[in-house]
Amino acid sequence: MDLNKIYKARGNAYLVGGAVRNLLLAEKINDLDLIISGLSEEKFLELFSDAKKVGTDFEVFLLKDREKNIKYEITLIKDDELHKDLKRRDFTINSIAIELKELRLIDPFNGLSDLILGRLEITDKNSFKKDPLRIYRSFRLAIKYNLKISEKTLKHLLLNAEQLKGIYPERVFEELKKIILIDEASQFFWLLKKLDLLKYHFPELKELIGVKQPEEHHPEGDAFTHTMLAFEEIIRLTAKPEFTDRKKFMLRYAILVHDLGKAATPPEEYPHHYDHEEYGLAILDTIKARQDYILPEKTYKAASLVIKQHMRVYYFNKMKPGKIVRLFEDIKRSPLSIEEFALLLIADDQGRAKDKEIPDYIDEMINLYHRMYADTGGDDIDQDKYQGEAFGEQLFQYRCQYIKKAREN
Ligand SMILES: Nc1ccn([C@@H]2O[C@H](COP(=O)(O)OP(=O)(O)OP(=O)(O)O)[C@@H](O)[C@H]2O)c(=O)n1
């Protein structure tokens, strides 16, 4: 973006928000938020004809530099409005500007010293009142950048917590996507638990608190603790460049919900949870209904698969061929590869305060899956004789025979 065009037209440009914060923290920078002062909308569009206006409340323009792969989000303000713009932002560390001509730091709320001291502080005492989503943002920023939420900020946060009820689910979900991608994301849920804030948007996770599990399998404690440990495991297993953010989200979300059904067990059956897969699927559907059009279909399908199949596979070596073929068909229809499904099983298994050996059936399961699909297919069935459902049934039987033989060898 050629800033000289702005200066020639007697305007000025400032870098603001997350990019300044990350620059000062030497962290990765995503999009660039710019403030341009002293230019009318017409003049700005004359100079940058590619800019697209978005939003209605604020004059925000998007501009993409495809060559450099940079996205600019630009706000136009009057000459004397910079301070006002910085004051309406959430935290002092996000209320710093860099004047780009002389590279001057403009920091009216002492954001830099808060950054240096590792402190998260609201810019204005009404920050949370103006936008309660900032409560979740504060946890994300504190965890991601290792900041301590100041006492004053925590006080105002708790005073406004009730207002979390009113935020649009879409916004919460967008925030959740960012949270789940952090390496230390389990801390977010532990914090919500500690402050009794799970009830607003994560009531199903709250229900897992205090739910007993068999001690010999789960010495770590209740179903909430187990879910968090398994969540940490899947984060560790997927914190690699080969996983796209979308994939990471899908796998991590699936683990967060894999045991929700345990909350529905009648307490007289504790510590066992005989039907938690069925209960879990029903609970996932209530979440989906509440988040209509928000929860991505693929994430929902991956989560369903794990809820339904994570226990059955535990006894893989004892599973009948028919059950194995059905399991493989479920995986094949899902958005997950067998290897990704296996990662979820490993995370569930390792997410316990127990032995740390990877279950030995995992390799066999992956192997058998690939062999079965490579060696059996539609061509093995007489297509003139069997059609429609009958064809499917024949293929199923054929595959059952295949699994049986493969295991005998
Ligand atoms: N609820 C919000 C959201 C955003 N902002 C301001 O808008 C800037 C940009 O917001 P966004 O891109 O959502 O977040 P970042 O802080 O940039 O963090 P990240 O890039 O990690 O999402 C923030 O720095 C903050 O100054 C705010 O005050 N209140």
Automatic annotation (TrEMBL):
CDD domains: HDc. It comes from the Bacteria. It holds the Pfam family PolyA_pol. Its cofactor is Mg(2+). Residues 223-334 form the HD domain. One of its GO terms (biological process) is RNA repair. Transmembrane segments: none annotated. Keywords: ATP-binding, Magnesium, Metal-binding, Nucleotide-binding, Nucleotidyltransferase, RNA repair, RNA-binding, Transferase, tRNA processing. The keyword RNA-binding applies. GO terms for molecular function: ATP binding; metal ion binding; nucleotidyltransferase activity; RNA binding. Belongs to the tRNA nucleotidyltransferase/poly(A) polymerase family. This is HD domain-containing protein.
